[in-house]
Amino acid sequence: MRKLFIAGALLGGGLIAGGLAAPAQAQMELKFGHVGGPGSLFEISANEFARRANEKLGGKAKVVTFGSSQLGGDKELLQKLRLGTVEFALPSTVMSSEVDAFGMFEMPYLVKNREHMKKIEKEVVWPSLAPMAEAKGYKILAVWENGFRHITNNVRPIVKPEDLKGVKLRTPKGKWRVKMFQSYGANPSPMALSEVFVALQTGVMDGQENPLTQIYSTKFQEVQKYLSMTGHVYTPAYIVAGVRKWESLPEDVRKALSEAAMETQPYVYEQAAKLEDDLLAKIKAAGVQVNEADKDAFIAASKEVYAEFGKDVPAGGKLVDQAVALGAGL
To answer: Which residues, if any, are the signal sequence (predicted)?
Structure first.
């Protein structure tokens, strides 16, 4: 009995002491969801950001990454940002379904190279597009990369736009990509990235278009015969937070995250350039037939899409003109 009494007294004392002491707070977890598979540029970028951010946060909070659409596809992730159930996402093409003017990056051969993209970021994204996104509930922290997109398929090598006639082609969810491929004669269908491998494997889709890093990391080389180096669109990627959730974070946490996001960009560009050469060799080694496309023919066939975009999205049309002018001499 004496032992029980002593144990009870100690427990009671512990409870009293616990009541007087400030309760220990659990570390804030900041979830970062993206659609990139293992080894993709998205995964590499998100993990580098998390490493830098967590170093700066020093235990105040912790960024945890979830790739391969674990927290949902692009559309679901954007919804979760607005709801505040996910803190960060890495949308690319899908931003044009939220803010029409982001469709400017759907225009074929608009971005010449990464130096051109840096100018567009400074003169177009931050002054014009970022405020439009914020008005819709999305806070852009930095502009990263998805990359230059190329076409894979199981029908034939794509050299000129007419080679796409009748090809069932998966595209991301962005109406201007669909319109572009319709104008080339393809039969495009938007589909979540996580569903594409099976669609290609079963013949539901003949082909798809993506940067090499997405093509390789999602193993499309296992279910595709041809890779055509069209480079038809350069897609930026944006590290995005939901405005309401972002504004609820402590100021010092926001500062650390903003700095980490911007500091990660040069690393992203460096890794993207390195991956392009490495992955092309690996895709060829997997038995995929690679060909160069007639880019001049594609550019000539793209005038209709530019004209329609300028008519339907006047604000975006002006930004396209501005972006084109920024590429002069590059």
So the answer is: 1-26
Alpha-carbon Rg for the chain in angstroms: 23
CA–CA dist 62, 50 (Å, integer): 8
Residue ranges per structural domain of the chain: 26-326
Q: What is the CATH number of domain 26-326?
A: 3.40.190.170
Q: How far apart, in whole angstroms, are the C-alpha atoms of residue 244 and residue 246?
A: 5
Give the integer Cα–Cα distance in Å for 259 and 252.
Answer: 11
Cβ atoms of 162 and 261 within 8 Å: the answer is: no
Q: What is the DSSP letter of 155?
A: S
CA-closest candidate to residue 231, choices 116, 149, 112, 108: 149
Q: What is the pLDDT of residues 123-173, one digit of tens each?
A: 999 999 999 999 999 999 999 999 999 999 999 999 999 999 999 999 998
Please name the amino acid found at residue 181. F
Show the tokens assigned to 61: 């909070």
- Burial of 210 from C-beta contacts in 10 A (0-12 / 13-18 / 19+): buried
Strands 234-242 and 138-153: antiparallel
Residue-wise DSSP of 31-77: EEE----TTSHHHHHHHHHHHHHHHHHTTSEEEEEE-TTTT--HHHH
